[in-house]
Specification:
This protein is of the alpha+beta class. The chain has nine helices and five strands. Keywords: Cytoplasm, DNA damage, DNA recombination, DNA repair, DNA-binding.
Length: 200
Amino acid sequence: MISSVRGPVLEIGLDHAVVDVGGLGYAVFCTPSTLAGLRRGTEATLATTLIVREESLTLFGFADADERELFLLLQTVSGIGPRLALATIAVLEPDVLRRALHDGDLVTLQRIPGVGRKSAERLVVELRDKVLVTPTAAPSASAPAQSGNARREQVVEALVGLGFTLRPAEQAVDAVLAETPDADPARLLRTALSSLGRSR
């Protein structure tokens, strides 16, 4: 298992970063909040986990080991795979997710795309006793401001990468931008994901 990577950041997309490790460029899929803390050309250290499938090897990266453990814990629940686990952390910050699981807050859990009431109940039943509620962490530094069009294109691309079709993804992002035109990419993705989750 690749438990961490460290090196200069070569590229940053909305859903992944490329990190140079000993001359090899590793594509690491991350949450928006983790990506917001990276800067191209600056060395980064990410806690990682490698998901092995018959047809692929996919590396997921996190700001710290605690977020990685939550990502892995989510996948112990039937029906929760890596993509949904990452989307879950994208929609709900780790502390918010832990609190929702601990308190049995089904409304909050149903903001996750693809999670209905029964799935939310299953998450609570299976994970309530496995999470520790911690004080709310200070918000991370936001990424440099981008134009609305650049943010729109990046977020739409990320949503399509998460399995949504183009048209609904565009409509969800446009709706968020109409209400909060200054939303940073992480907030824009999180809100659009929540909206798409409610519409399913």
